């Protein structure tokens, strides 16, 4: 993939598992230690609070999360959210590599309905995510 950091196949496979609703609501990706590849970090089920706790304070991550919420009229909705987690405490090299990999990863994750860039946990509060779905 020219112009971007390569994404491991396992990342795409985990995304497809989430999309097919096979008991997975969260996929977390990170950069490899040498910052040259996007790799799978976690695949499973997390509550919203557990997701916030899983995000490191000084490292970047990408998260695909199946956000479930109720509309004003009480209807149940689900949206697939891609979160670009780039805290200000992350090292400059990691933030730059994260930025370089963001668009290529977005292009590979067909079916993401909402994209959120976050630098602070307040950007990812449940109500904040729900407000971005409309």
UniProtKB/TrEMBL annotation:
Species whose genome carries this gene: Streptomyces sp. 900116325
Domain of life: Bacteria
UniProt KW Cell cycle keyword: no
Record field: transmembrane: none
PROSITE patterns with a match to the protein in the record: ADF_H
Occurrences of domain ADF-H (ranges): 4-134
CDD domains hit by this protein: ADF_cofilin_like
Family affiliation: Belongs to the actin-binding proteins ADF family.
Keywords, alphabetical: Actin-binding
Protein name: Actin depolymerization factor/cofilin-like domain-containing protein
């Amino acid at each position: 993939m020219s112009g971007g950091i390569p994404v491991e196949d396992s990342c795409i496979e985990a995304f497809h598992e989430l999309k097919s609703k096979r008991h997975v609501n969260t996929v977390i990706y990170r950069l490899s230690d040498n910052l040259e590849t996007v790799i799978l970090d976690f695949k499973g089920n997390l509550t919203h609070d557990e997701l916030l706790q899983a995000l490191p304070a000084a490292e970047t991550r990408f998260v695909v999360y199946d956000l479930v919420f109720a509309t004003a009229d009480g209807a149940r909705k689900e949206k697939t959210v891609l979160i670009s987690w780039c805290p200000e405490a992350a090292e400059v090299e990691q933030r730059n590599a994260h930025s370089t990999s963001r668009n290529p990863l977005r292009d590979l994750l067909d079916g993401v309905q909402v994209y959120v860039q976050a630098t602070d946990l307040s950007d990812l509060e449940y109500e904040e995510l729900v407000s971005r779905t409309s």
